[in-house]
């Protein structure tokens, strides 16, 4: 007789129960794969369901439309992390230069070097065809991202570490090199003559150095 503390037997019923709990995450992972690979318009919900190993009906239990599925993918992989990033910013105890470097590196590790970076490329290519999704992406990703960078720059100015700059334009000093790296990833051979010699981490450090050279207050 099994002990009262032993794990339940691995029966078809228990496997189905575990799989039911895992389905939303599996569907979001499958949707991310296909949206990035094929784009929003070309991805069919039955393909996503098949990729996740469930029926189309099961997908619609969790996500009533392809648009809602896409929004859930964006929230899972990018916009849902802003609360965490806000906490990190508020609790950061180093200099603003260190914070900006941390921002560069963390963005690359958590978004730029992952499949989630493909969502930005998807929106750039399909925004005109799906204005409602473009509006959602702007509200959920672009605007909070800009606000986060503005707060880092304002922190530096308030502490006398950064010179006074126009925040609305200075945001793009930080974002432009990151956008280039993200967009160049799938076509590195076209953008960079020797992609095998290109190190994204070294590029990020160089760009952080370059941005900080323009921002730091210089001793007189």
TrEMBL record:
Residues 1-22 are annotated as: Disordered. It comes from the Bacteria. Keywords: DNA-binding, Transcription, Transcription regulation. One of its GO terms (molecular function) is DNA-binding transcription factor activity. Residues 44-63 bind DNA. Pfam families: TetR_C_11 (PF16859), TetR_N (PF00440). InterPro entries: Homeodomain-like_sf, HTH-type_TetR-like_transc_reg, HTH_TetR, Tet_transcr_reg_TetR-rel_C_sf, TetR_C. Residues 21-81 form the HTH tetR-type domain. Residues 1-11 have a biased composition (Pro residues). Coiled coil: none annotated. This is TetR family transcriptional regulator. It comes from Pulveribacter suum.
